[in-house]
Design a protein that fits this description.
The chain contains 19 helices and 29 strands. It has a seven-stranded mixed beta sheet with strand order 5-4-17-16-18-19-20, with helices on both faces. Strands 7-6-8-11-12 form a five-stranded parallel beta sheet, with helices on both faces. Strand 9 (about 165-170) and strand 10 form a beta hairpin. It is of the alpha/beta class. The structure holds coenzyme A (COA) and adenosine monophosphate. The site of coenzyme A has 27 residues, from strand 9 and helix 12.
């Protein structure tokens, strides 16, 4: 068996040959002859002369390869106690019909379609139907509030929106349709129509002329074949939180994405056609795009779509029952989910109660995997627990202990070695490459490999300034860390204003914007503080305008409600403190990094330029009370 270092060396020797070889795993209508065209702006494009269709690769080709009757997609709902199986043939029929319905409504290649849906089979049909037509989907996570949805609608300018009437969360029904209606009241751009999937738990009151019932829309629609698109045609836009309040539209090219995913399914996840792959995430996140939908389907696996939680729906055994029932070979989730299970079932009794022989590995990503959680899971499950590091922008893992290679020695706290294609360097502020054990910014030498974002939607300049400008010749990941003497990567966390809350990525700038919009707030800061379950949770620090007479407690309550309303429940924003002032430099810059260091109980220097040391002391006291609570 090859080692990952050997694969990396082979890639370094000739990246073009490496990736053109990897491209053979994909069915092309015109196979590419060029790997990366580095002359194309902003940072190169992959497989520029290739032509293909993503839906054909994910669905139709498996029917032609005699997998038509194999389950392609299984929807398991812990919320309704139901399951639905879709064979590759059935999936093709559903998707081709929905694509026909979209086409009848005028959707053509390059049009955008926003998908605002919970974890139901139709959400996957919707993504694949867009791909079938060469339309660009943009899935918006259901835990975001209406203004967040509106911002994405205005940026993507969709011709259509596909939504469900409701989503099901423990103890409550989320009225997706009401959120959509409110978002459209806020948005400048209006789609031609919204197609609404009516769920029995809470059907929507459809707006005449605008909303179309999903079933009516597909009833007489013709099944349409896959439309050939250029490898560089965008497959989707996925918005993610950046350092500003405005979400960034990560663009994903069709051809290079599928090549990268196919390579990863084989070498990182080592899951073959016919096996069951389960990414317990949400289609609203990159993990859902890459490893609920496109990765496993392109590989010919059975993929699971799970509507439920790791605990409480109804208990901490939910994951293990699913693994036994559907003979899951590979599980992928966020460390938070394992922490939640461990908290409820520390002795792993639910695991023991189920037959988990099918499970070969558990992959963790989305946030730092703390060594305790990794150790607990590997002892309880008896399979490799693989921490791997990546982000929405890259679309697939940058650093991972690939299961398809000879096993690597594990070092606690490290996702191990870079994946071929990702030449990782640690840089200082002057872009000098740092040596082993020296902490700095984690960056990737350009060009980025296939699968990574080629740009931001309609915003090449934003792409350059957010990722390429800080360190010329490199892509800045936004994470800090170091390499050790063996080249193992240690990721220490974000060095910008992004926080990971239960594996969900949020921008503190976005939360600050919501707080700042309150009429009583003069200034504010949001920082992430450690949380045993969610890894990090945000906390707000606000200074009130002079003359505000409302009590700090009432203001805090209002602000918590406001963030839920403006950003969404997913922010888990539950604590907001009124303070006399925020610590600043004399030039007026709020000392966020210093506050973060205090919250993390890390050493920090009080800047010589501090305006008022008493302000820092107040924050220290507030944070020490909050953290120790
Ligand atoms: N639609 C609407 N609301 C949603 C939602 C969705 N798709 N997903 C989450 N929410 C809401 C939840 O209902 C909750 O609302 P509440 O404040 O009314 O309770 C809030 O957003 C926070 O949700 P969540 O982060 O799921 O926290 P939780 O406290 O309900 O559950 C865990 C805690 C650990 C069980 C949960 O965070 C979890 O399963 N994490 C795994 C994360 C994951 O898969 N990340 C994907 C990246 S790999
Ligand atoms: P997202 O774009 O939502 O996938 O979030 C990406 C961010 O999550 C990264 O930039 C990291 O900060 C964090 N992250 C993801 N995986 C890991 C990991 N294995 N270890 C540490 N941090 C991680």
């Amino acid at each position: 068996m090859m080692t990952q270092r050997q694969a990396f060396a082979r890639w370094q020797e000739d990246p073009s040959v490496f990736w053109l070889d990897a491209a053979a795993a994909i069915s092309w209508l015109r196979a590419p002859s060029i790997a990366c065209d580095t002359t194309q702006s902003p940072s190169g494009r992959w497989f520029v002369d290739g032509q293909l269709n993503a839906c054909y690769n994910a669905v139709d080709r498996h029917i032609e390869a005699d997998r038509g009757e194999q389950a392609a997609l299984i929807h398991v709902s812990a919320m309704t106690g139901s399951e639905r199986h879709h064979s590759y043939r059935e999936l093709r029929d559903e998707v081709a019909k929905l694509a026909g319905a979209l086409q009848k409504l005028g959707v053509t290649a390059g049009d955008r379609v926003v998908i605002y849906m919970p974890m139901v089979s139709e959400a996957v049909f919707a993504m694949l139907a867009c791909a079938r037509l060469g339309a660009i989907h943009s899935v918006v996570f259901g835990g975001f509030a209406a203004p967040e949805l509106a911002a994405r609608i205005d940026d993507a300018q969709p011709r259509l929106i596909l939504a469900a009437s409701c989503g099901l969360e423990p103890g409550r029904i989320v009225d997706y349709h009401a959120l959509l209606v409110r978002a459209l009241q806020l948005a400048k751009h209006q789609p031609q129509h919204c197609i609404v999937l009516q769920r029995d738990q809470s059907p929507a009151r459809l707006r005449p002329g605008v909303d179309l019932d999903w079933q009516d829309a597909v009833r007489d629609a013709p099944q349409v074949p896959p439309v050939p698109v250029a490898a560089t045609a965008p497959l989707y836009i996925l918005y993610t939180s950046g350092t500003t309040g405005k979400p960034k539209g990560v663009v994903r090219d069709t051809g290079s994405y599928l090549v990268a995913l196919a390579w990863s399914m084989q070498h990182i996840y080592a899951t073959a056609a016919g096996e069951t792959f389960w990414a317990a995430s949400d289609i609203g996140w990159v993990v859902g795009h890459s490893y609920i939908v496109y990765g496993p389907l392109v590989q010919g696996c059975t993929t699971l779509l799970y509507e439920g939680k790791p605990v409480g729906t109804p208990d901490a055994g939910a994951y293990w029952r699913i693994i036994e029932r559907y003979r899951v070979a590979t599980l992928f989730t966020a460390p938070t989910a394992i922490r939640a299970i461990k908290r409820e079932d520390p002795r792993g009794q639910h695991m023991q109660a189920n037959k988990l022989q099918s499970l070969r590995a558990l992959f963790l990503a989305g946030e730092r995997a703390d060594p305790d959680t990794v150790r607990w899971a590997s002892e309880a499950l008896g399979v490799p627990v693989i921490d791997h590091w990546w982000q929405t922008e890259t679309g697939w893992p940058m650093v991972a202990n690939g299961l398809g290679f000879e096993a690597l020695p594990i070092k606690a706290g490290s996702p191990t070695l870079p994946v071929p294609g990702f030449d990782i360097a640690v840089l200082d502020a002057e872009s000098r490459v740092l040596g082993a054990h020296q902490q700095g910014s984690l960056a990737v030498r350009l060009p980025l490999p296939p699968g990574c974002l080629p740009t931001l939607w309609n915003n090449d300049e934003g792409f350059r300034s957010a990722y390429l400008r800080e360190h010329p010749g490199y892509y800045s990941t936004g994470d800090g860390g170091y390499l050790d003497e063996d080249g193992y990567v240690f990721v220490m966390g974000r060095i910008d204003d992004v926080i990971n809350v239960a594996g969900h990525r949020l921008s503190t700038g976005e939360l600050e914007q919501a707080l700042a919009g309150h009429p009583a707030v003069a200034e504010c800061a949001v920082i992430g503080i450690a949380d045993e379950l969610k890894g990090t949770v945000p906390i707000g620090l606000v200074v009130l305008k002079a003359g505000v007479t409302v009590s700090p407690q009432d203001i805090s309550r209002e602000l918590v409600a406001r963030v839920r309303d403006e950003v969404g429940p997913v922010a888990s924003f539950q604590r907001c403190h009124v303070v006399a002032r925020l610590p600043k430099t004399r030039s007026g810059k709020v000392l966020r990094a210093t506050m973060r260091a205090i919250a993390d109980e890390r050493p920090y220097d009080v800047p010589a330029t501090i305006e008022d040391p008493a302000a820092l002391e107040e924050i220290r006291q507030v944070l020490s009370r909050t953290v120790s609570r």
